[in-house]
Design goal:
23% helix, 230 residues, Jelly Rolls, single chain, alpha+beta
Length: 230
């Protein structure tokens, strides 16, 4: 698995400096195609959401059921471990009581103890004119402060459809980021907030994410959220 070869020091620096970090391809083209093909297998998913119905945007997504496909489960577990160290450092900076276990299984046990038992990794699919409104993926009282999105489509499969991050800075106007990815590559970003240096130590900077309008084509992505849902 390519996770072990990532430069985690550089990822941590980018998360602190920019509020997000990108990675080289974590999935091969064949793995990306396999996950795209999996979208049509109803046995793999616990629920399907049409975004327009809830005014979330235009497109749809499906949450994987337990047990997760081996590729998704492995990627989720391997990504969690180095991200937990960053999450704990952020928690300390923000003076929060939360401490995240070193292993994903331990963290998921914490989720279960608070009634969060439904898996949250998902596949997202957009067609022409599709988009995803700015939002935060919070599914209960327990949440892990970082998540990952991996692009499954090839960049030439669509126009537009950029990944968006918007930061609400303290006592300032919002700042936006546009992130473009290659097939199999990922972006790591905050679920809700991140620490930024301030005169009194650190301030909380609120984050929302989404996807811009696809001008043409189709776009699919894998979302890896580490906390489970109620």
């Amino acid at each position: 698995m390519r996770v072990a070869r990532l430069d985690w020091q550089a990822i941590a620096r980018d998360l602190d400096r920019l509020g997000y970090a990108t990675t080289p391809a974590l999935l091969s083209p064949a793995e990306c195609r396999a996950l795209q093909d999996a979208y049509t297998d109803p046995n793999l998913f616990r629920s399907r959401v049409e975004m327009a119905r809830y005014r979330f945007g235009e497109g749809e997504y499906q949450y994987f059921a337990d047990p997760l496909p081996p590729l998704v489960a492995t990627l989720r577990r391997l990504l969690y471990e180095p991200l937990a160290a960053i999450a704990n450092r952020w928690s300390e900076a923000l003076q929060r009581d939360s401490h995240f276990p070193d292993q994903l299984d331990q963290f998921l046990a914490l989720c279960r103890s608070h009634g969060q038992t439904r898996p949250t990794p998902l596949l997202l699919r957009y067609e022409t004119e599709g988009y995803n409104c700015l939002h935060q993926d919070l599914y209960g009282p327990i949440h892990f402060p970082l998540q990952v999105t991996c692009l499954l489509s090839e960049p030439q499969d669509f126009e537009g459809g950029e990944f968006l991050l918007v930061e609400q800075r303290p006592r300032a106007q919002s700042r936006g980021h546009v992130v473009t990815l290659e097939q199999g590559a990922s972006v790591v970003f905050p679920v809700r907030e991140r620490p930024v240096p301030s005169k009194r130590g650190f301030a909380r900077l609120q984050i929302r994410h989404g996807v811009s309008r696809l001008r043409s084509g189709h776009r699919m992505a894998l979302g890896i959220i580490f906390h489970d849902a109620t």
